[in-house]
Amino acid sequence: MPFHNEKESSFLTINDIGAIDGWISKMKENLLRLPSDKRKLAQRTLELPYNVIGYGFNRLVYDLGSGYVLKIAFSELGMICNTQEHTLYSNSNPNIRNYLCPVLAKGNGWIVMKKMERKASINIENLEKLSKLSLIFLLHGIIPVDLRLANIALTDDNQMVVIDYGLFTTTPLYKRADQ
Q1: Is 16 exposed, middle or buried (0-12, 13-18, 19+ CB in 10 A)?
Q2: What is the mean pLDDT of the chain?
Q3: Three-state DSSP class for residue 72
Q4: What digits encode the pLDDT tens for the residues 51-62?
Q5: How far apart (Å, rounded) are the C-alpha atoms in residues 107 and 176?
Q6: Are 149 and 122 within 8 A, CB to CB?
Q7: pTM
């Protein structure tokens, strides 16, 4: 699957990319701010025409419409998480990729992912599925740091898909798709 680079994107406009580039430069000047302050500063600076549908300690998530979301870093760790999600999705074998939300484009400080609508509710069945999913990642050489139901969505056939895997870490047991 070809990934769009940061200067061309069928998902973002030139103005969007320019605003994100401006924010990333400004972000690096504000390293010591609290995460909540950085998030608010990012939103004010970006002024993107999309709705914010979520955020964590390191990234903002915008709804691009038509089934896609935009994750923008507002910290250095957010930058690393975006790179990790892109790398893990693009390099993992299909057995693992099926459990990862697709990353469709990447740029400086941002990624575009498929929007997953169905969140996993907290119940015994989903907790058992989550335990099994954690084991699948571990057996494939991936330590699923921060794997929890809040970071999971469900497909139409109730398969779990991880929507936030930026903190996942690979071990020497990890095999890329091309290995």
Answers
A1: buried
A2: 92
A3: strand
A4: 999 999 999 999
A5: 22
A6: yes
A7: 0.91
Q: Compute the distance between CA of residue 59 and CA of residue 133 in angstroms, rounded to an integer.
A: 24
- Report the pLDDT value the prediction gives residue 177, as an integer from 0 to 100: 81
Instruction: Report the C-alpha gap between 63 and 112 in whole angstroms.
Output: 10
Residue 179, pLDDT score: 78
pLDDT at 8: 57
The 3-state DSSP class for residue 151 equals: helix
Letter string b/e over residues 98-124, b meaning 16 or more CB atoms within 10 A of that residue's CB: ebbbebbbbbbbbbbbebbeeebeeee
Complete domains list, the chain, with CATH = 14-114 (3.30.200.20), 118-170 (1.10.510.10)
pLDDT at position 3: 45
Q: Let me know the angle formed at the C-alpha of 148 by 75 and 143, rounded to the nearest 5 degrees.
A: 75
Give the DSSP H/E element, type plus range, for residue 48: none
Sequence-distant (6+) residues with CB within 8 A of 59 are 71, 72, 73, 74, 75, 78, 81, 82, 166
pLDDT band at 176 (very low <50, low <70, confident <90, very high): confident
